[in-house]
Amino acid sequence: MRTFIARRLLGAIPLVLGIATIIFFVVNLAPGDPADRFSSPTMSAEAREQVRVNMGLDQPIHIRYVRWLGALAQGDLGVSFSRNRPVVDIIQELLPNTLLLSFTAIGVAFVMGILLGILQAVRQYSLLDSIASIVGLFFYSMPSFWLALMMVLVFSLFASVWGWPISFPPSDIQDIDYAFFSPIEKVQDRLMHLALPATSLALVLAAGIARYTRTSMLEEIRQDFVRTARAKGLSEPVVIFKHTLRNALIPVITLVGLYLPFLFSGTVFIESVFAWPGMGKLVVDAILQRDYPIIMGGSLVFAMMVVVGNLVADVLYAVVDPRIRYD
Amino acid sequence: MRVRLTRLILVAGLAVTIGACGGDGGASREAGPWMLEASLAEAGAAVQFCEEVTANVSAYMSQFEGQMPPSERHGGAVVVASIGDIPDGMNNHVSQDYTASQHQSFVNLMTLVKYDEDQNPEPYLAESWEVSDDASEITFHIRDDVYWHDGELTDAYDVAYTFKRAIDPETAFPNAAYWTHYEQGPDGVEVVDSFTVKFQMRPHADYIDPWRATTIMPEHLLGDVPSAELRQHPYGTVCPVGNGPFIFVEHREAASWTFQANPAFPADLGGRPYLDRYVYRVITERTTLLTELLTGGVDVFIRPFPDEVQAILDSDVVDLLRYPFRGYVLVGWNARRPQLADKRVRQALTRGTNRQEIVDALLQGYGTVANGSVPPFHWAYDPSIGRDAMSYDQDAARALLAAAGWVDRDGDGVRENAAGVRLAISIKYNHGNDMRQDIAEIMQAQLSQIGVEVTPMVVEWGTLLDQIGQTPRDFDGVVMGWIVEYKLDDTDLFHSDNISETYAWSGTQRPDIDRFLEELPLVVDREEAKPIWSEYQELLVDEQPYTFFFFDDRLDGINKRLRGVEMDARGEWLNIKDWWIPADQR
Amino acid sequence: MTDRLGPGRRGLALSAVLPGLPQLAVGRWGVGGLGLTVWIAFLAVLLTRWARFAAAWGGPLDHQIASLTVVAGLLGTWGWSMFDVSRPVELDRSGVSQWRLAVQAFKKNRIAVIGAMVVVWVYLIALVTPLIAPYDPAMQGPLPGRLAAPSSEFLLGTDHVARDVFSRLMYGARVSLSIGFVAVGISVTIGTLLGAVAGYLGGWIDTVVMRFVDMVISFPRLVLLIAIVALFDTQSIFLIVAVLGFTQWPGTARIVRGEVLSLREREFVEATRALGFSRRRIILRHVIPNVLAPVIIAATLGIGNVIVLEAGLSFLGLGLEPPTPSWGSMVADGRDLLLNAWWISTFPGLAIVLTVVAFNLVGDGLRDALDPRLRA
């Protein structure tokens, strides 16, 4: 197992490098000049050229590539065109927000989804099963930004205007008075701000997870060993949770690996709607603004996180299913 | 590099405020001393810069600890939000973003002069000024009681420094055109004494305008920075230091900017602002922004769309502010194209489009049809120009097209000329802008009725700028917008000398227009200039390099608890230092 | 209790006039309901839109297809119903094939059948749209009529340039459905093949394929999509479909590979190896059919996923060029107007949800029916 992990990590380096190169060339070969966005209509041609020089865009592409790789090796991701700060600083500020959102959403989604899936499997074809399937599908089928907008309107606007007991803040990660809050108030504030975005993200995921768990549980429940367990007189919860679940979770765990890239890029829509200052929104805004350093830096960071995440998923997979051999 | 939090302790001198004393113990943010945090980068010269700067600001401001606030109006925090960020921060040398310049001019920094409602200059940082009789020399006398937020005095050296940076080509100052008629050689600026500075210039109109638009920058902090590094210097976005009514406190990337009242602001100019704190938030999703406004999370929504205004009008919590502005929307025509070369065709395209209906429908009436580049509130505006000549009249349009030789010869509904070229054009617009898309599509529908085939095309912004700005000028028509400066100058757009420059989209080449463009800036007296402006505008109507669409009014949603807000064409943040909130609504 | 009306004059007569009714009468509401509703609806279309129908034959291709669909639908429904009614009643159910059992299990699953009906209906509507859409989807009405609420004149209201939302919704169905179908077709094919090969053969092939999968998965899909749209500077439907399809297959490949890895150790596969079958035969005829269940789930989830992703692209401003309607771009267009013109976004949004739900119900039903291990 250890050699496996070591080999995978080693293999990840050329992988990430390859991704980095592809990103660099795709982005830099796109038509259009990023300097245009940062020049004003009243500037002379010389001034605009000066802007390009200041941004380092006057060099030919292979020189820029080599420079970029060199800087990369030293942990320098360049300076953002649009925000005029080192990309590393920007990412350091925004990444924790995205991670907070993603992991909260994953956690909630997996717990909700697995429990629901188990329930559905145990009561296959019942009314509960049907309703749960349809409701779950309903959420799963919604474009996430649409769900997010609905949540803003219902749980923030209407809740406030119609005087419901609780209404959630629709944007940002914290109140403007956050700095003055006591530690408990700070946690509360974060949770309030996390509520809508994380729920939007989680609902979409949970439905998919529930379906998968249901299928998987159904397969396992029909296995002979389950009948044996029941025949032995074990109580139903023990049968389900201790014996069936472990096998059933195997394909569900692959979902973690499958959902990871979706999670990071899926946060794009949620972050946009809820004005959540995070990586997803950063990278997409950068693309639309042609802010090359952020596009490249941000994509690279995403890719690295996904690679690590997949590795973790594979390890989990092997741990859970003793039939899997990684030799 | 790691990000580390550093405490910036500022004491706002609000030990006790009448009636607002905190029974809520530790979290009394409207009374008593309070702490703010600024985030800085660590390691390296940039960080060192910010650490020193912050320490200095902190030390200077602590002397105002414990001062009693002058009146009951003092207190509270206001939140302004819009969909755009402030990309270059407070660095006036490089920024060209409207929101940035508003924050620089009215919030964090100061300009030498401000405009009153009639666009006449009034003193701000400059106490007074004199112009020589032949208008070749201008001398400014700077106030001696304005301090940078780190304790240094603002003086004439800062003004001279700002000017030199602006005219230095290596800075790539976005509005270098301001200074074309100023003497840019080594003798151009002279620092007479600590508070007096003299500039040489060639006589021209609106010579004060550049000083309304350019904020004075701190020479003691930025003087030694090489030009190429200015843009990315942390001063702009990480630790700005100003001398204006509000002190910079914190910038959360992609989220918010926080400022705090400056207790040292000169009493002559109004003294310390009423508000304790001002927060600018960035929310890109319009529905969310509207929700924040309607639920009280945000006090001011900058520029809602006309279609969104109904919810604001219906709300009990918010008011709508509306005022004319200096931005106009146009469709620029590439007169180099065979279909568009004849000015009668361009006139026909304008007359074939019902612009008033568009204003009524798309802008919900919040706008004025435009026939030239002069905004309706401007002193040079003449409402009669083009009103009849370019009125909506499809029959007249058809007649113009026919006279220019465009007739539908093959019965397909689209006109051709004698050589068989079809009157088929594309109108390009950048995506992300619904208004421009709508205009292109509406023109498509309306112009088809006079035998012109229009194809709307969406193009990515950067690519579009290339297509219209560089040869071979790959476009027929383009929907665009301009925000005009008070110092109107269309030279870049229509003068034939600039015909291969970026902004000569139309390729206008008319000696009579050239003459006007050259003479107008030199006429100093407004009364004299006005009829000349009218003549120039008539020429533009005749030439129709653009179909001028409309000057749209500015709209803002403002929470009713906010008092004293004045906004007009000078900007939304115009008098932010005079905004206040009644004590019971903070 | 027989399960069909049996050959007899009453059944035939009924079937000739209202195909589907005899089937309904004996409780086969799925096929019966579908047949009857198609018959009645298409007949109505034919009668009320005769002019358009007749003109369609000389018109553009999609008009011809629409008319063809009406004709085929009418003939097909009538013919099937007559055939079905005149077949002898089944006596014996022994010796029925796996597939027959699966179909019967599927038919027992009510919501799956409903889902199937919805899917068929959506596709039929999409095909017949040119005949039934009340307005041209690209035609703008007079400007004062923009943002009009749903009314008898404009069933689902008008959008911000006074176009009929209802017509755009129907035309948008064609676009969204096609994108979904083709993209998923590409991705499932590639994914299944590669996943099965990698999982079964193992070794260096597995490593290579999975490295490749890792790379494509790790690649921020959105970035690639957006960058390519920008690079080619067009928003062509082919490009979008291609990129969507070619970035979706790793998911299927992983699932298939996972299943195959488990399957590989099972007894029946060992048996085929013992019998000396070639690897190709084992993979194609024994392994893949047994991983079809997760592939089907993947495919149905996939279609929905692609439709939703296309909506996301439109949200970022990279959907199809206007005035081409797609459900995604309609939702995106209306999102700033949710408070004062909710119909622009809401109806396409509902359409997306409904269609995707229907696909997924079908997928679930098929899976339940096909997997012998899951049947009660």
From TrEMBL, chain A:
Location comes to: Cell membrane
- PROSITE patterns given in the database record: ABC_TM1
Q: Can you supply a Gene Ontology BP term from the record?
A: transmembrane transport
Predominant subcellular localization, coarse grouping: membrane
The yes or no answer to whether the keyword Membrane is present is yes
Q: Which GO terms describe its cellular component?
A: plasma membrane
Q: Supply the InterPro entries for this chain.
A: BPD_transp_1_N, MetI-like, MetI-like_sf
Positions of transmembrane segments: 9-30, 99-122, 134-162, 191-212, 248-274, 294-320
The ABC transmembrane type-1 domain is annotated at: 95-313
> Which CDD domains does this chain map to?
TM_PBP2
Q: Which residues form the signal peptide?
A: none
Does Secreted show up as a keyword for this record? Answer: no
Annotated keywords: Cell membrane, Membrane, Transmembrane, Transmembrane helix, Transport
Topologically, how does it sit relative to the membrane? Answer: Multi-pass membrane protein
According to UniProt, the name of this protein is ABC transmembrane type-1 domain-containing protein
